[in-house]
């Protein structure tokens, strides 16, 4: 693995050096911090304290990058984007420590200067030292109040402008969240702040393979603290530690999966279908396979164990054998299709096929249920991808909307009369959630929108909420899940 390394001799704190290497990889190569950081840690001998510090500095600095650059811009005589990138990343780490940690100011400045010397040489040391001393003075003067430091607009005058500054999000994302929450600035702030909290690791105990209780017991046996959720019957919360140490995870009996992803899949499985079933469920965009595996297990768990029970037949004909539920998972990309296939291992009535969901290799009107978890901006999982808020743009969403509509149309064509489609995104953005659904449904007289809030699978997580239907939007600050969106659509049988 190629990583940025020190160019000159010098002593740098190992935790800060590791965080700097991740920031350089993100900046130079577009790396993902949630993949790069564990990979680098695996090759270092760091104490638990240093591992924790490296994690905090990496994720915190990436999430707050806009704020950090703003603060640096108030104390430098040149634009921050003209500073040599390796030096700039070190300054970001130093500024984050001054703003958001308990590291004493003198230690934050000195350790960052050491980092600059070790990674960039002696020449920029004086500049880095001067900049960070000015930042430390400004933080002390304002008591670290970001709104004061960056002269944020008054929240009553410009709510979006204020939230952009104090929550370290691009303005367009703040506008999206405000729109999704009907302009409620307090709720929007809570939602945006939740993107900066470290999410609890959610596990799924795959039905038919292992129970949630057994998974909790297994975690205890290897020294991990875990507890069952009260929402998904298959969800287990892991309070720290490496889930890869669990035998069930290594065997594919359990996996890391956000509870929101579990709930939307279970909502589809729980919707009653109308008319004679075909037994076929299709996951139209299955990669990497977590929802497909949960669907396969949940649908099979709801069926009688025997596969040869008689089913109704036409007069004068012998009864037909009732077919077990079958799941077909489609994924066009080879690598992701391989992940889907691995997730479905152990489910004999589930298959993976490499295919574009817009052109499914299945006869139209034959599926009981179709899950279409469309490619989206991922704005609902920003807490898991700290650099994503600065990479995504409104143009990314605009480019995805036509694909999302095409996939939903394909799903509706594939489902039989009386069957159900679940349209799912990991985003709260109305343009790729409710607006996609309504644009397609307005052109389809054969489609009815179901009230997803009435799903038995969602009763617990939605209890006490007053959100209007018929769609469901989960939120990290309200439900502890990623911001998953769900619409349930039935193809009319009349």
UniProtKB/TrEMBL annotation:
Pfam families referenced in this protein's UniProt entry, alphabetically: Methyltr_RsmB-F, NusB
This protein's record includes keyword RNA-binding: yes
Statement: the UniProt record of this protein carries the keyword RNA-binding: yes
GO molecular function: RNA binding; RNA methyltransferase activity
Gene Ontology biological process terms from the UniProt entry: regulation of DNA-templated transcription; RNA methylation
Residue ranges constituting the SAM-dependent MTase RsmB/NOP-type domain according to the UniProt record: 191-492
Name under which the protein is recorded: rRNA cytosine-C5-methyltransferase
Organism annotation: Parafrankia colletiae
Organism phylogeny: Bacteria, Bacillati, Actinomycetota, Actinomycetes, Frankiales
């Amino acid at each position: 693995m190629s990583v940025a390394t020190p160019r000159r001799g010098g002593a740098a704190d190992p935790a800060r050096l590791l965080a700097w290497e991740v920031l350089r990889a993100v900046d130079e190569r577009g790396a993902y911090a949630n993949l790069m950081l564990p990979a680098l840690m695996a090759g270092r001998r760091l104490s638990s304290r240093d591992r924790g510090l490296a994690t905090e500095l990496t994720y915190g600095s990436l999430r707050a990058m806009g704020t950090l650059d703003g603060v640096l811009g108030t104390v430098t005589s040149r634009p921050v984007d003209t500073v040599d990138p390796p030096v700039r990343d070190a300054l970001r780490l130093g500024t984050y420590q001054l703003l958001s940690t308990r590291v004493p100011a003198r230690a934050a400045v000195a350790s960052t200067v050491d980092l600059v010397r070790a990674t960039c040489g002696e020449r920029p040391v004086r500049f880095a030292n001067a900049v960070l001393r000015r930042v430390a003075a400004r933080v002390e003067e304002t008591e670290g109040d970001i709104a004061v430091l960056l002269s944020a607009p008054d929240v009553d005058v410009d709510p979006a402008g204020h939230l952009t500054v104090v929550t370290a999000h691009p303005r367009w994302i703040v506008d999206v969240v405000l729109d999704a929450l009907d302009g409620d600035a307090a709720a929007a702030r809570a939602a945006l702040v939740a993107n900066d909290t470290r999410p609890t690791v959610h596990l799924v105990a795959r039905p038919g393979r292992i129970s949630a209780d057994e998974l909790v017991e297994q975690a205890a046996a290897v020294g991990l603290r875990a507890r069952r959720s009260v929402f998904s019957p298959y969800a287990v919360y892991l309070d720290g530690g490496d889930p890869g140490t669990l035998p069930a995870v290594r065997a594919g009996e359990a996996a890391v999966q956000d509870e929101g992803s579990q709930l939307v899949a279970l909502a589809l499985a729980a919707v009653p279908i109308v008319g004679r079933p075909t037994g076929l469920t299709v996951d139209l965009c299955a990669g990497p396979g977590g929802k497909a595996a949960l669907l396969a297990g949940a649908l099979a768990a709801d069926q009688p164990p025997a596969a040869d029970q008689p089913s109704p037949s036409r007069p004068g004909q012998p009864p037909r054998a009732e077919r077990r539920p079958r799941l077909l998972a489609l994924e066009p990309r080879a690598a992701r299709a391989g992940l889907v296939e691995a997730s479905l291992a152990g489910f004999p009535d589930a298959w993976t096929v490499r295919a574009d969901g817009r052109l499914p290799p299945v006869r139209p009107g034959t599926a009981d249920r179709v899950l279409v978890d469309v490619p989206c901006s991922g704005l609902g999982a920003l807490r898991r991808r700290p650099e994503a808020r600065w990479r995504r743009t409104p143009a990314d969403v605009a480019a995805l909307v036509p694909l999302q509509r095409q996939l939903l149309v394909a799903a509706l064509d594939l489902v039989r009369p009386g069957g159900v489609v679940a349209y799912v995104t990991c985003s709260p953005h109305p343009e790729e959630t409710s607006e996609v659904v309504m644009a397609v449904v307005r052109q389809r007289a054969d489609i009815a929108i179901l009230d997803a809030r009435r799903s038995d699978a969602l009763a617990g997580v939605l209890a006490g909420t007053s959100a209007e239907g018929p769609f469901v939007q989960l939120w990290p600050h309200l439900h502890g899940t990623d911001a998953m969106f769900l619409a349930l659509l039935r193809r009319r049988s009349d």
